[in-house]
Design a protein that fits this description.
This protein has 555 residues and is α+β, with helices and mostly antiparallel strands. Among the domains are: 95-186, SH3 type barrels (Roll); 271-440, SLED domain (Aspartate Aminotransferase, domain 1); 474-551, DNA polymerase, domain 1 (Orthogonal Bundle). The protein is built from 20 helices and 19 strands. Strands 6-5-4-3-7 form a 5-stranded antiparallel β-sheet, with no helix packed on it. It has a 5-stranded antiparallel β-sheet with strand order 11-10-9-8-12, covered by helices on one side. A 3-stranded antiparallel β-sheet has the order 14-13-17. The termini are far apart.
Length: 555
């Protein structure tokens, strides 16, 4: 039997790549891409560009999407990723060493609890399942067992270790005894960083959704600032955008998921509902409990978001039986529960598949609870008011693909043509009169005209989220002076943290990560910051002191 030539095997492997990073629409010989990177494109590579094969990811097609939006993908040399995605030979339950993401100076024992593409879902031994995190198999932050000791370090218990710290050595012995250690051969060397930031505004890429890190989604470079880029998620109106360095391992070239087997989430397949904490929750919901709820539910499947929102209403009720009485048994949806009459009661919600149905259901429920305007599909501000018809045309241009809702005082029965099943799921004996909702429709391209240059300001404004504008505005220190802290944005809060004490500056990004705005800031206590934000005692006490001064009007 004739042996294969390893060089030819490598070339064949390279040809499997389908990355569209240089605008190709078919299988690419990556050697050709490298030539193109250095300004030398061969005739064969030109033929690739003319090929008709396209990248299919479920119902989402990058080739078609790029044409529809008149967009260009970010070239592969922009990314700190391997040209050929590394193989993933890890197995569930394997042990390895990993940096504690909440305390990066500590190296801990971690267990592989999930696999997808070239990524690992890791859980630090001794912690709970609420702090799992993801790492690429070629990340420098994971190493084989023994690497820490070999380099003169010591394995540490994770932040929030559930047992007494003195029991850590014995816990470590028991954890490693008989465990399957990930072999050295399956670890990969981390790729080098690009020489500088090559990204330009408007370029397309694939990016990890940091709020739901198991998802990788289509995204756009919304802004470039020094060594940082603003990653904006297509179709999500800025709620999940984030800034990161150009060499972040959370961003990938177009087509990466196709190569690794990761499931790329098409734009708009997830639903997100925002909570209005500024309005009146009505007579049945406890306002203090409402303030402790997250600012949004999702992004996730419509049925999951509906369940989270309805369950939140039940949990915040003075009497759970009251909210439960407005609901009828549905079918096909998620389960909600309530405790009253010394028993736990459950029922199924109806199956829903779009934000339209989610909002319609919540509108009816909240109208019965007399807590109108509690939910919407765009972030609420303190001065948020339902749009008037004269504002309609202006508001439409602010948002990306999809529908924009502002929940009015009540509901129009003709909101959806096929809504009878939704109506029947809310108890008709408790339904009240209805009037009108304002809705805007329409999908428009992310780039308004193919003729516009990539850096054109008007195009970029449509590509970027409103969050990037808030970021730039909040850099002006005078913005905080004399303003009600409860009206502060997340960026205002970050500015406050930096200005209150320069030593707290490194912790400012935690407030963006946890979406802590002014209202949430005023509710924070030192124990909450330590438990939920991962802060150590010293910084938590300092912040608590400054928050108390802020409440007294001494900032």
């Amino acid at each position: 039997m004739q042996k294969s030539d390893p060089r030819k095997d490598e070339k064949t492997k390279a040809k499997r790549l389908k990355l569209l990073g240089q605008g190709y629409t078919t299988n690419i010989d990556w050697n050709e891409v490298r030539k193109h990177k250095y300004g030398h494109l061969s005739e064969s590579a030109s033929q690739y560009q003319e090929a008709t094969d396209i990248l299919e990811l479920g119902h989402f097609t990058w080739d078609k999407y790029l044409k529809e939006t008149c967009s260009v993908p970010a070239p592969v040399h922009c990314f700190k990723q391997s040209y050929t995605p590394p193989s993933n030979e890890f197995k569930i339950s394997m042990k390895l060493e990993a940096q504690d993401p909440r305390n990066t100076t500590s190296t801990c024992i971690a267990t592989v609890v999930g696999l997808t593409g070239a990524r690992l879902r890791l859980r630090l031994d001794g912690s709970d399942n609420k702090n799992d995190f993801w790492r690429l198999v070629d990340s420098a932050e994971i190493q084989p067992i023994g690497n820490c000791e070999k380099n003169g370090g010591m394995l540490q218990p994770p932040l929030g270790f559930r047992l007494n710290a003195s029991s850590w050595p014995m816990f470590l012995l028991k954890t490693l005894n008989g465990a399957e250690m990930a072999p050295i051969r399956i670890f990969h060397k981390e790729p080098p960083s690009p020489s500088h930031n090559f990204f330009k505004m408007g370029m397309k890429l694939e990016a990890v959704d940091r709020k739901n890190p198991h998802f990788i989604c289509p995204a756009t470079i919304g802004e470039v600032r020094g060594s940082e880029v603003l990653v904006t998620f297509d179709g999500w109106r800025g709620a999940f955008d984030y800034w990161c360095r150009f060499d972040s391992r959370d961003i990938f070239p177009v087509g990466w998921c196709s190569l690794t087997g990761d499931n790329l989430q098409p734009p708009g397949t997830k639903v997100c509902i925002y909570l209005n904490k500024n309005g009146s929750p009505g007579p049945h919901l406890d306002k203090k409990k409402v303030q402790l709820l997250p600012d949004h539910f999702g992004p996730a499947r419509a049925s999951v978001v509906l369940q989270q929102a309805v369950q939140a209403c039940i949990d915040c009720a003075y009497h759970q039986k009251t909210v439960f009485s407005f609901l009828k048994q549905g079918h096909g949806g998620e389960v909600i529960s309530a405790v009253f009459d010394r028993e736990q009661h459950t029922l199924n919600l109806p199956a829903v598949n779009s934000i339209t149905y989610v909002l319609r259901f919540l509108e009816k429920l909240c109208h019965n609870l007399r807590s109108d305007n509690l939910f919407g599909n765009q972030p609420f501000t303190q001065t948020h008011l339902p749009l008037t018809t004269t504002e309609y045309g202006h508001s439409r241009d602010r948002y990306l693909p999809g529908e924009s809702f502002v929940l009015g005082k009540s509901l129009t029965r003709s909101l959806e043509p096929h809504s009878d099943s939704m109506d029947s799921t809310l108890n008709p004996t408790n339904l009240v009169s209805s009037s009108q909702n304002l809705r805007t429709h329409g999908y428009r391209p992310l780039v308004p005209s193919c003729g516009l240059p990539l850096g054109t300001a008007s195009a970029v404004r449509r590509l970027c989220s409103r969050g990037s504008d808030r970021y730039l505005e909040s850099r002006d220190a005078s913005r905080l002076t004399g303003r009600d802290p409860s009206s502060w944005t997340v960026e205002d809060v970050m500015q406050f943290v930096r200005e209150a004490d320069p030593q707290l500056g490194p912790h400012a990004d935690l407030f963006r990560k946890h979406e802590i705005d002014g209202k949430a800031l005023l509710l924070l206590r030192s124990d909450m910051m330590m438990k939920y934000m991962g802060l150590k005692l010293g910084p938590a006490l300092k912040l608590s002191f400054h928050i108390d001064r802020l409440k007294q009007g001494k900032f």
